[in-house]
Amino acid sequence: MITFTPYASSSKGNCYVVSDGSTALMLDCGISWKKVRELLNFRTSGISGIFLSHRHMDHCKGVADAVKAGMDIYASRHTLDFLHVSEHRANEISDGKQFIVGTWAVLPFTTIHDTDGALGFYMVSLGGEAFLYLTDSGYSPVRFSNLNVIAVECNFLDEL
Question: Strand runs (DSSP E) across 33-148, as ranges?
Fold first, then answer.
């Protein structure tokens, strides 16, 4: 069964963990790595990778320290370049190119945002459950069906 745990969700920082019971993945790391470690009771080895939706600091603040701690980072080339993540921990992902991490099949898709390289994630566990992560997007340009869990993070701006 999919579990989704929010650790931070605001303009001050976003950080979530999704798990299918076998493989846990972090979605965005917009708080300090020190805070992430505390929130996870210092059990970061249970995280198989950090997926970044885009380059804004409220989604990637802790990445540099996470890389130093040995975490694998999955993000668009634009986001990796902006954050200067070029080490062997950097995994470039792109729109429509599915890949596997642990027991998850992950399909990144382009989102509607004010920065290049912004991605959402459609993920299917080995057990067949489907998960969708969409953040900071005006709408989803892609439609999905048969979803078990949908995680959408957004902020309301009256002028928009």
Answer: 47-51, 73-75, 90-92, 99-101, 104-110, 119-125, 130-135
- pLDDT digits 0-9 by tens, 42-56: 989 999 999 999 888
Work out the angle at residue 18's Cα, subtended by the Cα atoms of residues 22 and 40, and round it to the nearest 5 degrees: 90
CA nearest neighbour of 101 among 26, 3, 31 = 26
Going from the C-alpha of 100 to that of each of 12, 65, 107, the distances in angstroms are 30, 24, 9
β-strands 47-51, 24-29: how paired?
parallel
Residue 139 has pLDDT above 80, yes or no: no
| pLDDT, tens digit (0-9, with 9 covering 90-100), for 114-130 | 778 789 999 999 999 99
Q: What is the mean pLDDT of residues 136-149?
A: 86
Q: Which of 87, 100, 95 is nearest to 116 (CA)?
A: 95
**Predicted confidence (pLDDT) at residue 159 exceeds the cutoff of 70:** no
The residues pairing with 6 across neighbouring beta strands, listed in sequence order, are 16
Instruction: Residue 120: name the closest of 85, 154, 86 by CA.
Output: 154
Q: Look at the pTM and tell me if it is higher than 0.70.
A: yes
